[in-house]
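Today's session is about reading a structure prediction critically. Students often jump straight to the picture, but the first step is always the sequence itself: look for stretches that repeat, for charged clusters, for runs of hydrophobic residues. Only then move on to the predicted structure, which in these notes is written as discrete structure tokens rather than atom positions. Here is the chain we will use throughout the hour.
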Amino acid sequence: MSESSQNWALYLCGVKQIIRGSLMQREIYDGEFAVLRDWVYSHEVLAHFSLVHYESDHRSKDIICTTPLSKSVSVSSDRLSKADSTVEDSVEVLELISSIFHFVPISSPQSHLTFEHRRQISQIEHRLSRLIFSAPEEEGRQKSNLNGNGTAPVTRLCHLAGLIYLNRAVLRYSGIEPQHRRLVNRAFSALVKMSAREVEPWPLFIVACEAQTDPERRWVLERFSEAQKQRQADNIALIRRMSVTFWNQDDLDTEEEIEYATKITAAVSAAPFLPTFA
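Below is the predicted structure for this chain, in token form.
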């Protein structure tokens, strides 16, 4: 399936209906079934990002199945083998990222975060931070990325992108805070350790939008070019254009009057169809 096509939303909807109709009763998490559910769940979560930020009258926004798959793993953790701990990692990251998306519409200046909202956001921040800083930075240690496989840098980049997006879209960081820039620098370091084939679209987009200097942006564009050569079926070219659109918005906003989420929405909405970041 070409994910650069607007048809991805139809395919995702069809697969979800098949799973809900015939496979959801299966309780054993293994083999091809596990791969399929991981694939669908990652696409489902990141489709939420597209829906939050894509403003268009195009009909593709209406064909996403809104009925949730609920969770990639339906069995309890004690029934997973030790080898399946990587699956638990990817599922937890996806759940945390999905939770962040729910807070974006209510974190604007016109909205108000309640005490309960802030408590939940603090929990998300703590859990993502724990996943990042508790794991040793070993390239050889196998960890699961958003699609269920990969190495430690891949997973670390997903965690860091989640925290970066949380800071900017929900907590409304300006992006120049020292603690935030440390996160961004760690994300750049994770990218350095990854091959072009390992790079995933959503974390790449989130990290790319944090590039502020010309050298940083040139380096990010090189990563996009490398990823395009290795992942020709993906939508990397479109995400590259959206990243450049974000940079243009950011450069024009010299007074920092425009919210980060608004700039992301402008960049994502510049796509000719509902984009996928999975």
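Discussion point for the tutorial: The chain has a mean pLDDT of 78.
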